[in-house]
Amino acid sequence: MAAPRYPGFRSGEPEPERLEKLNNILRGKLNNSTNGTVTLTANAASTTLTDPLITPVSVIPIHPTTANAAGALATTYVSSQTNGSAVLTHANNAQADKTFRYVVLG
User: Is residue 42 within 8 Å of 96, Cβ to Cβ?
Assistant: First the structure.
């Protein structure tokens, strides 16, 4: 069986619906949903985020959902990543509620 011509489309999907999806992608509407949440480890300088969608070339934007997470945003970054996980490096303090939503792109 041959591979589908357009792997991101349903088999038999009408051409106008395919074009609408492509146009939405070009407008920035990627139809991504939040993959999950991650809470930075208290009293540590890094936290490992585990998600099967993560690859070495993924982009992982994070969005703070608590006041302490918003305060930690400026010092939090992805310092390394492999298939299935990424290490978030951050300030080491006792705050236990630094929670972020994230999505994996790519």
Answer: yes
At residue 31, the 3 state secondary structure works out as coil
Contact (Cβ atoms closer than 8 angstroms) between residue 6 and residue 25? no
Answer for the pair 79, 56: CB distance below 8 angstroms, yes or no: no
pLDDT in tens, 39-85: 999 999 999 999 998 999 999 999 999 999 999 999 999 999 999 99
What span, in angstroms and rounded, lies between the C-alpha atoms of 99 and 39? 4
Domain boundaries, the chain: 32-102
User: Phi and psi of 89, rounded to 5°?
Assistant: -95, 140
- Say what the alpha-carbon torsion angle 97, 60, 30, 14 is, to the nearest 10 degrees: -120
Q: What is the pLDDT of residues 5-30, one digit of tens each?
A: 545 666 677 888 888 888 888 887 77
Starting at the edge strand found earlier in the chain, the sheet holding 85-89 runs 46-50, 85-89, 77-82
pLDDT, residue 29, reads: 75
